[in-house]
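hey can u check if this looks right to u? its 170 residues, i copy pasted from the old doc so theres a chance i mangled smth
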Amino acid sequence: MANTLAPYLNAIRHTLNAALCIENFASQLVERHNKPEIEARHSKELILQPLIIARNENEKCFIEPSINSIRMSICIKQADEIETILCKKFTRFLMQRADSFIILRRKAVAGYDISFLVTNFHLEDMYKSKLVDFIIQFMEDIDKEISDMKLAVNSRARIAAGEFMKRFVN
C-alpha cells in the first residue's frame, strides 16, 4: 500500500468495521419480508447518518449504513480522459458480473463509479474482517489495474504511431 494511500484506506477500514455492526431486522410493513433498509428506505429511523471519506474531490468513498445493511460507493481516481474511459469500461465489465462478486451492486449510486451492498445475510456467511479486507484490497487493486491498462494503451498507441509514421519516411 502506498504511503499516501494508507491513511485514506485506514480511515475506510475503521469506518467499515464500525458500520458493519448490522443485524437481522424484518420489515415493519410486510410480514416475513427482510429487505435491505438502505435500498428499500421504508423507515427513516432505521437509516443511519451517511459518511463521505474523501482523499480529494476525485477520489472518495460514500458509506450509507442502516440497521440491516450498508451500501458503499467508491469514486475511483481519474486524472485524465484515458483513465475516465478505462474506469468506465472496467467498472461496467465488473458490474455485469456482479453475481460472481456477491456483494457488488449491478448499478452504482449516481456520482460514483462502483457500489457494494453488504447485508446481514452476507455477514452470517462471511467473516467481517475478511469482507473489509476484500473491499480495501479491491480499492488498491482497481487503481493498479487502471494504471496498468493506461500504460498498455499508451505503449500500443506509441507502437501504432511509429508504424504509421514509417510510411512517411520512405
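The two ends are 49 Å apart (CA to CA).
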